[in-house]
Amino acid sequence: MPVYYDVHTHTDKRSENVVQIHSLFHDQLKLIQPQPQVWYSVGWHPWHVDARRSDEIFSWLEKAVHHEKVIAVGETGLDRSLETAIGLQHNIFSRHLSLAEKSDMPVIVHAVKSYPDIIRAYKESKAHIPLIIHGFRGNQQAARQLLTHGFYLSFGTPLLKQNSRLAQVFQNIPTEQLFLETDNTDADIKQLYERAAVLRSLKTEQLMEIIERNFKKCFGK
After folding, report:
1. Average pLDDT, integer, range 95-109
2. CA 149, CA 152: separation in Å to the nearest integer?
3. CATH assignment of 4-219, among 3.20.20.140, 3.40.50.2000, 3.60.60.10, 3.40.50.2300
4. What residues contact residue 91 under an 8 Å CB cut-off, 6+ apart?
5. Which of 27, 45, 96, 140 is deepest in the core (most CB within 10 A)?
6. Distance between CA atoms of 50 and 70, rounded to whole angstroms?
7. Each residue of 59-96: pLDDT tens digit?
């Protein structure tokens, strides 16, 4: 029986038929619980980047990725709305990509006004692991550029808004590169699936099967 997959969340919303990837910040490993349908990603969010702590944080991350419940690196990425120098962010993001490649794990990517930068960093890294752009809110052109490089696009609660521009973009995303997420909201992932299924003229059960296939291919679980 298909289940719902919430590929990126910061809030604990456990349910019998929901699989979630709970995103932990660099100092939250102690929050990991041995629940069968809960997985974790670990990373250093761009909001928290500090050059003085980089070696300390990556020492922790290199250990954390070996935890049996950790299946992804991130969230990490580039955010041009921050005062933090983009060069520093790029360095930290590149180190995440290297760690993910070494660990054979996908990367959950935070991207704000930085899709071209993300693509450039990925190409420079020569990594071959999947990247998931979480909370995608870009236009159709940005989506095409990211999809061309094999990235997955994960959509969140903005899809629930009627007649939104993002809903139109969502309708044209290849189903094999698609995920859904609740991020840091209290939204019900089931409601998001129902809305997304309507937008794609699918039954909810069909969309569940599609995203389950994507999850197993991307994360191997």
Report:
1. 98
2. 9
3. 3.20.20.140
4. 54
5. 96
6. 24
7. 999 999 999 999 999 999 999 999 999 999 999 999 99
The pLDDT, as a whole number, for residue 41 is 96
Q: Is the distance from CB of 14 to CB of 37 less than 8 angstroms?
A: yes
Peptide bond before residue 75 is cis, with ω within 30 degrees of 0:
yes
Tokens 């660099």 belong to: 26
Domains in the chain: boundaries: 4-219
- HSE of 193 in the Cβ direction (CA atoms, 13 Å)? 21
Structure tokens at 152: 């997955």
CA 66 to chain centre: 19
List, in order, residues 6 or more apart from 189 with CB less than 8 Å away: 4, 5, 6, 13, 18, 20, 180, 181, 182
Strands (E), the chain: 4-9, 18-24, 38-42, 70-79, 107-112, 131-133, 152-155, 178-180
pLDDT tens digit sequence for 2-23: 899 999 999 877 788 999 999 9
Under 8 Å between Cβ of 156 and 185: yes
